[in-house]
Amino acid sequence: MGVIEAAEAVRRRFSTVPGLFKVPAPGVEMYVLRDFLADKECSALIALIDEGREPSRLLAHTGDPEFRTSESCNLDPTHPVVRAVEKKIAQVMSLDPACGETIQGQRYAVGQQFKPHHDFFFTTEAYWPEQERNGGQRTWTAMMFLNAVEDGGQTQFPEAKVRITPRKGNLLVWNNLDEHGAPNMTSLHQGMPVIAGVKYVITKWYRERPWTPSLAAATTLY
């Protein structure tokens, strides 16, 4: 199934999910489902992130030490809570689970941020040949907020003029490609600096083909 056909399958599935709504985001296909994760799931995932967190990394260096200052970790896919969450995501997304990357957990303390970036891969970058072999382009992003942040920490899409406030248990989904299946520059987004409190999220990215990472790719945090 190509990326355009897969996107159509996602839309058909989304049309049947109670409570899921499309966000009015000009130029970006974006959806929110409230209370996707239960409180117990959020608490368990936060504990896993705290156990495994380390400074976040980038596939391509920007030369800006403040570009991504959060902490991250790949969550163990064999953990019972992670398995349960994976199952819930698969039921909603209607994408081949084999195309999904390992869920990544992220923690943002006061002042930490992730400056404007795209989740899709730039094919001109040195990392692309390996990523192309390991499943190809990123298509959809599924982000889940694990807690409410006291102040700051919004996920902002500056080109689409949309800002999403972290709400415990909410699922935010967007398509990183346009209607033609090409990388969508308007999907530019950022994790705004946390002003008060701590922000916890988990993110699952999907590829255009089954994800078969090399050892190096599997340990790279992006």
From TrEMBL:
Alphabetical UniProt keywords: Dioxygenase, Iron, Metal-binding, Oxidoreductase, Vitamin C
GO molecular function: dioxygenase activity; iron ion binding; L-ascorbic acid binding; oxidoreductase activity, acting on paired donors, with incorporation or reduction of molecular oxygen
Chain coiled-coil ranges: none
Pfam families: 2OG-FeII_Oxy_3
Membrane spanning stretches: none
Entries under Gene3D superfamilies matching the protein: q2cbj1_9rhob like domain
Cofactor: L-ascorbate
PROSITE patterns named in the record: FE2OG_OXY (PS51471)
Protein name (Swiss-Prot/TrEMBL): Oxygenase
Originating species: Allosphingosinicella humi
Source lineage: Bacteria, Pseudomonadati, Pseudomonadota, Alphaproteobacteria, Sphingomonadales
